[in-house]
Amino acid sequence: MTSIESVTLDVADPAAAGHFYTAAFGLDTQIRLRASKAPTTGFRGFTLALTVSQPSTVDSLIGTALDAGATTLKPATKSLWGYGGVVQAPDGTIWKIATSAKKDTGPATRQIDEIVLLLGVTDVAASKRFYLDQGLTVAKSFGRMYVEFATGSSPVKLALYRRRALAKDVGVAPDGTGSHRLMIGGDAGSFTDPDGFAWETTSPALTP
Asked: Which SUPFAM superfamilies match (predicted)?
């Protein structure tokens, strides 16, 4: 089963970005940073999502993200599917923090249950076929709208979403040009998908 060990974000200042992700979300090995000034404008075509257990955890993580320098794209609010909000990190990466729960069932924590990389693609069916050819396995599929891949105990989950729908979900315009400023690291091999998202082979992070 394919595993995604990390995502590498191209940022102008890795030290500042590293400080942000530690202070905002407590992330370390799952998010890697690389110095780059690759040109990009508008929506980069992907988002990262943090799935948590209850609304108070959403509020806690969004609060520390804003304190660390993030900006609000969508304030946290209840919806048909649960509770969540969207922020943009100082490096430009868009983060959605959400839970399927609508009420707290215990004290607030900062526990992150899942990190999900959502790729906004032009043609979900075509991208799904491409990834199946790379050896990935589908876990959930909703026609031409959304596909989620099976990644087992991988630190980062992977899903495909129609680009325009993903942009709408996080509150930005869908247009964008230039680099995605993203590298996906795992054991699927090195390749570039139909929408220009690049993968590289990486080794699992060592644990102390």
From this structure: Glyoxalase/Bleomycin resistance protein/Dihydroxybiphenyl dioxygenase (SSF54593)
